């Protein structure tokens, strides 16, 4: 199989609010879609800037990305989308009743974010902060236990047994520094 994937980097405005198309059941992925409008500006023969023809692209977001997009992106918001171009093809009945093949290009997003060049954005980093706080609390508890163990050993005159938390999150014995 070829590795020639058509990467897409879109910068535009969300035309509508994201919509959940497929709600993941039994742990399955959720599909969220929204459309992005893009256009270019050019300088006409008279020297005035003019808007080019707009181009609309449907963006598909699967799983957690779709959940976050649905909670964050709103109509009119300037966004940056990174993903790959996919083509969907299907059969439909034409006006004369004969079967007609239809197709559409979409972007299956891997990243979606606000365009910070267009506006100032307040980002909610609650999940990252909560994870960081939990890691810091566990690390702090291990430090306090090691200090208490050292104090107890010094008071009793025995050699202290220090236990620290290693890089993999596992407890490991630590040599005292004295």
Could you list the spans in which at least 5 consecutive residues all have pLDDT below 50?
Answer: 160-172, 174-178
Give the number of DSSP strands.
10
Helix-strand category: alpha+beta
User: Could you report the average pLDDT, rounded to the nearest whole number?
Assistant: 80
Q: How many domains, in number, for the residues? A: 2
Q: Report the radius of gyration as a whole number of Å.
A: 27 Å
* CATH class call of the largest domain: Mainly Beta
Q: N- to C-terminal separation?
A: 61 Å
Apparent shape: elongated
**Strand line-up in the sheet with most strands:** 1-3-6-8-7
Portion in strands: 35-45%
Reported for the largest beta sheet, the result is: 5 strands, mixed, barrel
CATH arch. level architecture of the largest domain: Beta Barrel
CATH topology of the largest domain: OB fold (Dihydrolipoamide Acetyltransferase, E2P)
CATH superfamily of the largest domain: Nucleic acid-binding proteins
Helix count equals 2
Helix share bin: 10-25%
List the helices and strands in order. EEEEEEHEEHEE
């Amino acid at each position: 199989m070829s590795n020639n994937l058509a990467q897409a980097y879109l910068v535009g405005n969300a035309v509508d609010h994201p919509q959940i198309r497929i709600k993941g059941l039994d742990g399955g992925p959720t599909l969220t879609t929204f459309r992005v409008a893009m256009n270019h500006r050019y300088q006409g023969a008279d020297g005035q800037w003019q808007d080019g023809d707009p181009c609309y692209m449907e963006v598909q977001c699967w799983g957690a990305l779709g959940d976050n997009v649905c909670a964050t992106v709103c109509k009119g918001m300037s966004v940056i989308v990174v993903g790959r171009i996919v083509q969907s093809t299907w059969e439909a009945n034409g006006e004369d009743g004969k079967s007609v093949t239809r197709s559409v290009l979409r972007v299956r997003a891997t990243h979606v974010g606000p365009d910070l060049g267009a506006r100032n954005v307040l980002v909610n980093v609650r999940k990252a902060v909560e994870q960081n706080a939990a890691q810091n609390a566990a690390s702090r508890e291990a430090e306090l236990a090691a200090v208490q163990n050292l104090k107890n050993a010094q008071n009793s005159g025995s050699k202290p047994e220090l236990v620290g938390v290693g890089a993999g999150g596992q407890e490991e014995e630590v040599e005292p520094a004295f």
